[in-house]
Amino acid sequence: MQSLECIQQNSLAINHLLARINALASERHASPGQRAAWQAACEDFYTRYDRLCFPGGAAMLERVRGGDPAAIDAAVQFLLADPYHFRSGYLKERLWRWLARLPLAAGARARLERAALAYLDRRICREFWAMCKAMPRIAGAGFWRAAAAQALPAAADARDPVARRATLLLAHGASVHAGALARQRFYQSC
């Protein structure tokens, strides 16, 4: 299992490789040499991406779907690290959906609860909604008490973003229908 720091470093490497492609893209038509440099940067990105994007690469992702305990630990570690790189949001969204349907050890559940509570401190992006749908299947009573404690300031200040996100999470925990309505109201208010 890779450490959180290693996952973050891999994410930074992906971002660096992609930035190199983007920097060379605007100049690729200027000369054959610059086009070759851009193509080399693209090939470097695509050969290294699988190894860098997820601990163990695509083979480990397939093992997550199969319920392999080592792969599940890698997925939980990835969600805890919360890296941000090319296509990471799609990957995290998929992991939340898969993990909600797999039998998890108590330690994995506790670490996923920590990862989910960390989402309340960040802006809402695509994987937030997958996390909200997954947590009713994963989380225990202590998680929902912690989420409710984060939502309490909503009564005092409706603009508090952490409380608003916690309220959305609690709506998903109440029922699928309540979560869908809360999500619809959220998008209408934006």
Automatic annotation (TrEMBL):
Protein name: Uncharacterized protein
Species: Pseudoduganella guangdongensis
